[in-house]
């Protein structure tokens, strides 16, 4: 599914008919099947869906982090500022990572080395980013240490000078996540990809991290892609949302429009499962069944086996329908579902 062409400036990131699969012992796993979306400069986009729908695979594809084999691109383009990231060499991708596009992950302890201090790791990351710059413009280690303190202060880590000498185990989960954000932004990228950045944190710290990402986005002019299964996160920090199901995009809309007028039955099911302060827990619903096996995807709409509106035409690939300005849905029942959600 392709996003509606956006007016105004050219997109910073444009994913076009992207297809990716993995070779496994059981066969070819068709992880991503023809997805497309645009991200404008300064925009925040949420990508939501169940575990296994392809959200993180999409993010890692943008970063060029999937090993090949077993991953194999079957088609499409990923354009960053007009440059196709699928066709640049590894040397160019190393220059882009960190300096142009950065990524933060959900479990800080997985990405921080427990035997090195925060300062050592942050300074090493900063110096690694410098290799893509002309030699005359590179920071010395002393300047890199000053920059590390500056970045820790920007992400509101208390006592940044002292924390440089701390080890990861000495910091709380929220503090470690702030360190990862400082690392990601130390190369001054234009695009930040956040892959479930609050999953391992308690609710209070989650809110602080989301507020921090929103603040940094405004102050630094960042574009943000937020990968999450939590629609509350999307409502907090995103301008627009893409809903993925079984390797495909089923709905793409502005956040307010999606919450007020969900048009795909899968999106409506996700929203019905979200707790609400004014709604009793007994009224929560679930989506029956589970994701299809992408080693052998079903014909037609991949959601039809779980969909309450499914009919015989759902055995054919659904059309992409514009149900409103900037709101597209891949569903045979798009207008019917949109009317029901109005």
Automatic annotation (TrEMBL):
It is found in: Cell inner membrane. One of its GO terms (molecular function) is ATP hydrolysis activity. The keyword Nucleus does not apply. GO terms for cellular component: plasma membrane. It is a peripheral membrane protein. Pfam families: ABC_tran, oligo_HPY. InterPro entries: AAA+_ATPase, ABC_Ni/Peptide_Import, ABC_transporter-like_ATP-bd, ABC_transporter-like_CS, Oligopep_ABC_C, P-loop_NTPase. Its main location: membrane. Residues 13-271 form the ABC transporter domain. CDD domains: ABC_NikE_OppD_transporters. GO terms for biological process: peptide transport; transmembrane transport. Keywords: ATP-binding, Cell inner membrane, Cell membrane, Membrane, Nucleotide-binding, Translocase, Transport. Belongs to the ABC transporter superfamily. This is Peptide ABC transporter ATP-binding protein. It comes from Thalassobaculum fulvum.
